[in-house]
Design goal:
Residues 51-441 form the Catalase core domain. The chain is built from 20 helices and 19 strands. The chain is α+β, with helices and mostly antiparallel strands. The protein has 4 domains: 1-37; 104-402, Catalase core domain (Catalase HpII,  Chain A, domain 1); 476-552, Hemocyanin, N-terminal domain (Up-down Bundle), CATH 1.20.1370; 568-713, Rossmann fold, CATH 3.40.50.880. Strands 3, 4, 5, 6, 7, 8, 9, 10, 11 and 12 form a 10-stranded antiparallel sheet that branches. A 7-stranded mixed sheet has the order 15-14-13-16-17-19-18, sandwiched between helices. It has a two-stranded antiparallel sheet with strand order 1-2. Bound molecules: CIS-heme D hydroxychlorin gamma-spirolactone 17R, 18S.
Length: 722
C-alpha cells in the first residue's frame, strides 16, 4: 500500500470511528454535526505531535533559529521557515468583523415541526413532522464591536440556519418585531448614526449619543422601533429568555402555487425576562460575557433552551384590510387581528467546539430560502437580500458557502467555479451548461417537482423612488406599544429615554426629541423633559388614541408556566451556618432545576455549626456580585450571621438585590440579617418572630420559625423583570 493511500485509508477509518463515537452521544443523530466531523481535529488526543502547516514534525517552536555563541546572542535568522510560518499565520489571523452584529454567540440544535401546514407551504420542513432538522443559531448585539459587552441596551440578533434536506434556509431575525427604517437604502445611514461617532469613535455599543437621537428625530419612521429599543426588551436577562421575530414579511407557497403572507415568531419556553438597567450597567463591567456564558452554561448543564415556533398568516385577499401596509417593517401585525399559530419547536442542545470556525465563520443570508418559502415586496427585505450575500464576500471570500459551518447537508451541484479558497474538487471535463454530456441538468430539464420556483406575480406600477401611501403613518403603533406596557414597564421606558437623552449634549437633539415624544404620549414627553432639559410640551398634535394590544407587553406574555429552572441562585453562608437548612434548601432548588452557587467570605472550606465536615464555596464575596444571580438565600446559623453582619460585601449584596427587586429568602436569624441589611426607612420586610408562617413582602420571603418546606411553598421565584 502506498504511503498516501495508507494515510487516506487511516484518515477515513478514523473519521468513521470518530463519527461513530459521536453517534453514541446525544446529539450526533444531528446530520450537521456528522457533516462537520471530518473537518474537526481532536487536539486533546494523547500522542498528537506538533507539525508545521505542511505536516512536518517540529522540534521546537519556542526559539527562533539564531546565531549564538557562548559570549553573545546573535541575530534571528530569516531563513527559519518554521518561525516565519508561525509569525505570518498569526499576522493574518483576523478577518473583518461583521459591519453590524459583530458580537455574538452560537450554538447547535434542532427544529421539529409539530403541525404540518401543506395548505400553506410545500416546504419539506413545514410538512414532515417526522423530521428533525439540524440548525445553527447565532445571537448577537447590533452596534458594539466584537469585544464589546453583552448587556448593553441594544436590539439582539436571532439568526438561524436550518440545514434542511432541500437546502439551507436562513431566518435572520431580531428579538424586536419591527425595525427602524422602511427602506433598505437607509440602512447605512441608520447604522452610521448608531455606531460610535466618526470624529472620536465614541461611544462604544451605545445609542446614548447625539448622532443616534438626531437621526431618530429626523426620521419619524423610527418612532415605533426606538420605543421598543428603550423598553426592557433591549436588556434581556438571557438570550434564552427573549422572543425572536423574522420582522420582514415573507411568503409561503403551497404545491398548488397559492401564496400567503407570513411573519415568523419564536417564543421562549422560559418566558420573556429582562435585566433592570442598573444591573445591565454593572454587568457590563463585572461580567462582559454574561449572556455568552449564560447560554453555554445552560447547554452544558443540559438545560437546553427551547422556543415555540409560530406563524402569522394572511391571505392575498386580506393584504389591504389594515390601516398599515403589511410590507412595512416598522409595523407589527397585532395578534388580536392576526393570531399566532404555533406549529413547531426550536431547541439548542450543543455548544460549539471552536468559536472562530463556527460562530465567526457562520454566514447568514436572507436570500437563502427553500422551495415553499418566498419573499415579499417588503422594501427592507429586498435590500437585505442583496446585502447579506455581498457582505460575506468581503468578510469570508467568494467561497464562503463551502466553509464547513455554512455548507448544506444536501448535495450542491452547479458550475459556479474557482475563486479564492475553493475547497471542492469537481470531477468532469465540462464546467458549463448545457453540455454535450447532459451533465448536471437543472430541474427544468429533469422535471423535478421539488426545485425552487418563484411565485409568478403580476406587477403593474410606475418606476419611482417612493413608498406606497400607507408607509407614511408612523405614530399609531408607537402609541399602541407604549399604551400596552404595564406601569413599571412604562417607567422603565421613561427612565431609559431620560438616560439616553442625558448623554446628548447638543440641546437641538434633546429638545427636538422631547417634542417627538409628545407625538406618542404627552405625559411621557413631560416626564422626560423634566429630567433632561428643554421645554416641557403642553399640548400635542397627535393625542394618544388609547388603544392597547396586551401581547406587546412582555409581562403579559404568559405563554408558559413560571419556573425557577435554570435560574442562578446564590446561597450565602459563613462559618457556623446551619447545615440541615443548607442541605434541604439546596436540594429543593436543584429539584426545581435551578442552579445553586455557594457564596462565602472565602473560597476555602466553610464549616457548619457543630460539624467538622465543611462545604466548599463556589465563590467568595469579592469575586462575584449579586447582579450575576437571579435570587439569594441567606442561610441561618448564629455565628454565620454574626460574620455576615460584619461583611460589607454581604450587606451590599442584599441591599443591591433588594434594589433590583430580586427574590431574597431567609430563615431564622437569616431574617434579622436581611432586615438589618436592607435598612431602608419605611421598608418593613415583615418578620414575625412569633409566627411559624412564611411571609412575603417586597419579594422577600422570610420565615422566623418556619422550616424549608414552608419556604418552598412560598414559591421562591426570581422576579428580575419587575
Ligand atoms: Fe441585518 N445585516 N440588515 N438586519 N442582520 C447583517 O450581514 C442589513 C436587518 C440581522 O449572526 C449583515 O452577515 C441590511 C433587519 C442579524 O451573522 C449585513 C438591512 C434584521 C444579523 C446586514 C438589515 C436584521 C445581521 C452584517 C436593512 C432583523 C447578524 C453581517 C435593509 C430581521 C447575522 C452579516 C449573524 C447582519 C444588512 C436590517 C438582522 C450587513 C442592509 C430588519 C441578526 O449584511
Amino acid at each position: 500500500m502506498s504511503g498516501t493511500f495508507q494515510r487516506l485509508q487511516e484518515g477515513l477509518n478514523s473519521a468513521k470511528e470518530s463519527a461513530q463515537q459521536k453517534f453514541n452521544d446525544v446529539t450526533t443523530t444531528n446530520e450537521k454535526i456528522l457533516d462537520l466531523w471530518p473537518n474537526t481535529k481532536d487536539m486533546t488526543k494523547s500522542g498528537n505531535k506538533m507539525t508545521t502547516d505542511h505536516g512536518v514534525k517540529v522540534q521546537d517552536t519556542d526559539h527562533w533559529l539564531k546565531v549564538v555563541s557562548e559570549k553573545s546572542q546573535g541575530p534571528n535568522l530569516l531563513e527559519d521557515q518554521i518561525a516565519r510560518e508561525k509569525i505570518q499565520r498569526f499576522d493574518h489571523e483576523r478577518i473583518p468583523e461583521r459591519v453590524v452584529h459583530a458580537r455574538g454567540v452560537g450554538a447547535h440544535g434542532y427544529f421539529k415541526l409539530h403541525e404540518a401546514i401543506p395548505e400553506l407551504s410545500s416546504a419539506g420542513i413545514f410538512n414532515d413532522t417526522s423530521r428533525t432538522t439540524p440548525i445553527f443559531t447565532r445571537f448577537s448585539t447590533v452596534l458594539g464591536s466584537r469585544g464589546s459587552a453583552d448587556t448593553v441596551r441594544d436590539v439582539r440578533g436571532f439568526a438561524i440556519k436550518f440545514y434542511t434536506e432541500e437546502g439551507n434556509w436562513d431566518l435572520v431575525g431580531n428579538n424586536i418585531p419591527v425595525f427602524f427604517i422602511q427602506d433598505a437604502i437607509k440602512f447605512p445611514d441608520v447604522i452610521h448614526a448608531g455606531k460610535p461617532e466618526p470624529h472620536n469613535e465614541i461611544p462604544q455599543a451605545q445609542t446614548a449619543h447625539n448622532n443616534f437621537w438626531d437621526f431618530q428625530y429626523l426620521h419619524p419612521e423610527t418612532t415605533h422601533m426606538f420605543m421598543w429599543a428603550m423598553s426592557d426588551r433591549a436588556i434581556p436577562r438571557s438570550f434564552r429568555m427573549m422572543q425572536g421575530f423574522g420582522v420582514n414579511t415573507f411568503t409561503l407557497i403551497n404545491d398548488k402555487g397559492v401564496r400567503h403572507f407570513v411573519k415568523f415568531v419564536w417564543t421562549p419556553e422560559l418566558g420573556v425576562h429582562s435585566l433592570v438597567w442598573d444591573e445591565a450597567l454593572k454587568l457590563n463591567g463585572q461580567d462582559p460575557d454574561f449572556h455568552r456564558k449564560d447560554l453555554m452554561e445552560a447547554i452544558e448543564n443540559r438545560a437546553f433552551p427551547k422556543w415555540k415556533f409560530g406563524i402569522q398568516v394572511l391571505s392575498e385577499a386580506d393584504q389591504d384590510k389594515f390601516d398599515f401596509d403589511i410590507l412595512d417593517a416598522t409595523k407589527v401585525w397585532p395578534e388580536d387581528q392576526v393570531p399566532v399559530r404555533y406549529i413547531g419547536e426550536l431547541c439548542l442542545n450543543r455548544n460549539i467546539d471552536e468559536f472562530f470556525s463556527e460562530t465567526e465563520q457562520v454566514a447568514f443570508c436572507t436570500s437563502h430560502v427553500v422551495p415553499g418559502i418566498g419573499f415579499s415586496d417588503d422594501p427592507l427585505l429586498q435590500g437585505r437580500n442583496f446585502s447579506y450575500f455581498d457582505t460575506q464576500i468581503s468578510r469570508l471570500g467568494p467561497n464562503w458557502e463551502q466553509l464547513p459551518i455554512n455548507r448544506p447537508v444536501c448535495p450542491v451541484m452547479n458550475f459556479n467555479r474557482d475563486g479564492a479558497m475553493n475547497h471542492t474538487i469537481h470531477k468532469g471535463t465540462v464546467n458549463y451548461w448545457p453540455n454535450r454530456f447532459d451533465q448536471c441538468p437543472h430541474a427544468k430539464f429533469t422535471k423535478d417537482t421539488d426545485a425552487y420556483r418563484e411565485y409568478s406575480a403580476q406587477i403593474i406600477g410606475i418606476k419611482e423612488r417612493l413608498n406606497a401611501p400607507k408607509f407614511k403613518e408612523h405614530f399609531n403603533q408607537a402609541q399602541l406599544f407604549y399604551n400596552s406596557l404595564s406601569e413599571h414597564e412604562k417607567m422603565h421606558v421613561q427612565a431609559a429615554l431620560a438616560f439616553e437623552l442625558d448623554h446628548c449634549d447638543d440641546p437641538v437633539v434633546y429638545k427636538r426629541m422631547v417634542e417627538r415624544l409628545a407625538d406618542i404620549d404627552l405625559t411621557l414627553a413631560q416626564s422626560v423633559a423634566k429630567m433632561v432639559g428643554g421645554d416641557s410640551p403642553t399640548a400635542t398634535n397627535r393625542p394618544n388614541h388609547g388603544k392597547k394590544a396586551p401581547h406587546l407587553s412582555q409581562v403579559e406574555l404568559k405563554a408558559f408556566t413560571p419556573t425557577i429552572a435554570t435560574r442562578r441562585i446564590a446561597i450565602l453562608v459563613a462559618d457556623g451556618f446551619d447545615l440541615a437548612t443548607f442541605t434541604a434548601i439546596r436540594a429543593a432548588f436543584k429539584a426545581q432545576g435551578a442552579i445553586t452557587f455557594v457564596i462565602a467570605p472565602r473560597r476555602h472550606m466553610i464549616y457548619p455549626e457543630g460539624s467538622s465536615e465543611g462545604v466548599m464555596p463556589d465563590h467568595h464575596f469579592e469575586g462575584q456580585r449579586s447582579t450575576m444571580f437571579d435570587a439569594t438565600f441567606v442561610c441561618p446559623g448564629a455565628n454565620a450571621i454574626l460574620t455576615l453582619r460584619e461583611c460589607g460585601r454581604a450587606i451590599h449584596w442584599i441591599r443591591e438585590s433588594f434594589g433590583h427587586l430580586k427574590a431574597i429568602g431567609a430563615l431564622g436569624d437569616g431574617c434579622a440579617f436581611l432586615q438589618e441589611a436592607v435598612n431602608l426607612p419605611g421598608v418593613d420586610i415583615a418578620i414575625d418572630r412569633e409566627s411559624s408562617q412564611v411571609i412575603t413582602s417586597y419579594g422577600v420571603v422570610t420565615g422566623w420559625k418556619a422550616d424549608v418546606g414552608l419556604l418552598k411553598s412560598a414559591k421562591l421565584e426570581p422576579s428580575s423583570t419587575a
